[in-house]
């Protein structure tokens, strides 16, 4: 894991924040990514990572992460961690295993809560065997209005039929009240 920490203000869910599962993504960018995934999937359960062409969704790349499934979901590792994800979390997590994850500086979450939340979310994708869309309130700085994090997670294979990676996107946007 890179030890470089963003000078941007990291955002994190409050440990008491409720995660809301969505039937479908609300944000247009995430709906676009889901449609892209569906088009690459075709008649298969999941598209293969080789079918995914980042240049085909270039404007979303700063918000994209790719997570490698290790040992059937016993652990996970970030293969790609976009610039906006870095700004949101305060860390460049590329190459980091979830079992080694640390919470962002000044986060309201402990390292253990952070590891558990990320791991449980990825395991939910494996159990669901399909896209997972969610949102959760995030911490804000003084003077900011309410914010929420929107997440879309999409399983992909890596040359076989089992889910080998999870393609994801995260956006932090003003929360409508």
Structural class by SSE content:
alpha+beta
Number of helices: 3
How does the overall form come out from the CA principal axes?
globular
Tell me how many strands there are. Answer: 6
Per DSSP, what share of the residues sits in E-state strands of 2 or more residues?
25-35%
Rg over C-alpha atoms, rounded to the nearest angstrom: 15 Å
Low-confidence stretches: 1-12
Strand order of the largest sheet: 1-4-5-6-2-3
Largest sheet: 6 strands, antiparallel
Averaging pLDDT over every residue, what do you get? 85
Please estimate the helix content: 10-25%
What order do the helices and strands follow?
EHEEHHEEE
Note the gap between the termini: 37 Å
Spell out the blueprint of helices and strands:
Blueprint: E1 20-22, H1 28-41, E2 64-70, E3 75-81, H2 83-89, H3 111-128, E4 132-138, E5 147-157, E6 163-174
What features would you describe in this structure?
The chain is an alpha+beta fold and 177 residues long. 22% of the residues lie in helices and 27% in strands. The chain has three helices and six strands, in the order βαββααβββ. 32% of the residues are buried.
What are its keywords?
alpha+beta; 6 strands; 177 residues; six-stranded antiparallel β-sheet; globular; single chain
Structure summary:
With 177 residues, the chain is an alpha+beta fold. 22% of the residues lie in helices and 27% in strands.
